[in-house]
């Protein structure tokens, strides 16, 4: 029996292990061939800021790992209009560029998954 | 119903590890099955055999052990999260050439796949977070 | 039909806003741990505008000295029942 999993992360990169832990959860689901979606809410949208040179603080780049997700058949990264607005960002300027959801679409996304894992 | 419980918080980091324990007991008392309790992130510290709170304070590692023994629970600690944070069983202590192991009895180290498998097998997955 | 667990205190505005933006009329919002402070009188009005049913975890309110008059509380056993009655749980911390 297969189930769809939604991973919701709400943390900026390099704050704690949250961004990487969310990625690891999504990748593990993909390894088991479960349909998985990644939703970056609030500060987590900052994981998509281009030009991150995480080596400057001795960290691995979360952004680079997000860019590699299509290799694992995780094609879509979602965020919300509110998360973008909170930081004055536009989806086109982010990398990888996320699919932007309004409030109704956000509810539908949650409703469309059987398991929701949050960090 | 079959539940999986996910614990993200260390014992003194937030109240959520204790809430997870209460939920686990309440679910078992109601006749539900807990497929697995999965300790991830700082939650791995619930599995430390070295936690030594004063006698008049609770010890979450001991309480998890007690409920696990009573109900034959599967307490799985994410191996990657645990080893990073210094929660090791004998095998990992040998592998990383560390002087001691501290994974409490009743817990086992395994991969994130155990969370995915548990999600597939369970009717409900409940995450107890805390400490983003 | 989702059970949302809100464990963040009212001072964590972003967590509340994100949680609220996902609530539907079929959902239940359970206040637990520091989320119980949403039951303080000062926050009740905002709480009343939430589209979902709102309940609080009784022991967590009791422990923190939070009066729950006018708000439905559940004990741990009823928390488990809520989890069975909803298709999924989403945690907000």
Automatic annotation (TrEMBL), chain A:
User: Record's Gene3D superfamilies?
Assistant: DsrEFH-like
User: Where does the sequence pass through the membrane?
Assistant: none
- Name residues in a coiled coil: none
Q: Which SUPFAM superfamilies match?
A: DsrEFH-like (SSF75169)
The source's superkingdom equals Bacteria
**PANTHER family named in the record:** PROTEIN TUSC (PTHR38780)
Q: Which family does it belong to?
A: Belongs to the DsrF/TusC family.
Protein's UniProt name: Sulfurtransferase complex subunit TusC
Taxonomic source organism: Marinobacterium alkalitolerans
From TrEMBL, chain B:
Q: Which InterPro entries match?
A: DsrEFH-like, Sulphur_relay_DsrE/F-like, Sulphur_relay_TusD/DsrE
**Source organism's superkingdom?**
Bacteria
Gene3D superfamilies in UniProt: DsrEFH-like (3.40.1260.10)
| Top EC class of this enzyme | transferase
Q: Where are the transmembrane segments?
A: none
List the GO molecular function terms.
Answer: transferase activity
Question: Where does it localize?
Answer: Cytoplasm
Q: What is its EC number?
A: 2.8.1.-
Enumerate the NCBIfam families for this protein: PRK00207.1 (NF001237), sulf_tusD_dsrE (TIGR03012)
Q: Which PANTHER family match?
A: PROTEIN YCHN, SULFURTRANSFERASE TUSD
Protein family membership: Belongs to the DsrE/TusD family.
Name of the protein this chain belongs to: Sulfurtransferase complex subunit TusD
Its taxonomic placement starts with: Bacteria, Pseudomonadati, Pseudomonadota, Gammaproteobacteria, Oceanospirillales
TrEMBL record, chain C:
- InterPro entries xref list: DsrEFH-like, Sulphur_relay_TusB/DsrH
Instruction: Say which domain of life the source belongs to.
Output: Bacteria
Q: Which SUPFAM superfamilies match?
A: DsrEFH-like
Q: Which PANTHER family match?
A: PROTEIN TUSB (PTHR37526:SF1)
Name of the molecule in the record: Sulfurtransferase complex subunit TusB
* Naturally occurring in which organism (per UniProt): Marinobacterium alkalitolerans
- What's the source species' lineage? Bacteria, Pseudomonadati, Pseudomonadota, Gammaproteobacteria, Oceanospirillales
């Amino acid at each position: 029996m297969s189930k769809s999993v939604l991973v919701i992360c709400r943390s900026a990169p390099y704050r704690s292990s949250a961004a990487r832990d969310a990625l690891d959860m999504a990748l593990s689901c993909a390894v088991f061939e479960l349909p998985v979606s990644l939703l970056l809410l609030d500060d987590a949208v900052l994981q998509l800021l281009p030009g991150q040179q995480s080596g400057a603080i001795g960290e691995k780049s979360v952004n680079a790992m997000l860019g590699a997700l299509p290799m694992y058949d995780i094609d879509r990264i979602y965020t919300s209009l509110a998360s973008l607005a909170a930081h004055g960002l536009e989806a086109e300027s982010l990398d990888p560029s996320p699919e932007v959801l309004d409030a109704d679409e956000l509810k539908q996304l949650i409703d469309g998954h059987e398991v929701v894992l949050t960090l | 119903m079959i539940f999986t419980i996910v614990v993200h918080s260390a014992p003194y980091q937030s109240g959520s590890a204790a809430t997870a324990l209460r939920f686990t007991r309440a679910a078992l008392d109601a006749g539900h099955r807990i497929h697995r309790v999965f300790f991830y992130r700082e939650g791995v510290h619930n599995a430390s055999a070295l936690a030594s709170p004063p006698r008049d304070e609770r010890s979450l590692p001991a309480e998890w052990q007690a409920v696990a023994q009573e109900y034959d629970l599967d307490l799985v600690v994410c191996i990657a999260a645990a080893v990073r944070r210094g929660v090791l069983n004998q095998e990992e202590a040998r592998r990383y050439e560390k002087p001691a192991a501290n994974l409490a009895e009743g817990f086992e180290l395994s991969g994130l796949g155990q969370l995915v498998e548990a999600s597939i097998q369970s009717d409900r997955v409940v995450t107890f977070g805390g400490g983003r | 039909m989702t059970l949302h667990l809100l464990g963040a205190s009212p001072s964590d505005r972003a967590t509340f806003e994100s949680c609220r933006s996902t609530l539907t009329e079929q959902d239940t919002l359970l206040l637990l741990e520091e989320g119980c402070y949403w039951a303080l009188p000062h926050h009740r009005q905002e709480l009343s505008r939430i589209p979902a049913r709102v309940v609080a975890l009784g022991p967590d309110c009791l422990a923190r000295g939070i009066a729950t008059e006018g708000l439905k509380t559940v004990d741990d056993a009823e928390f488990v029942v809520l989890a069975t009655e909803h298709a999924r749980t989403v945690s907000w911390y």
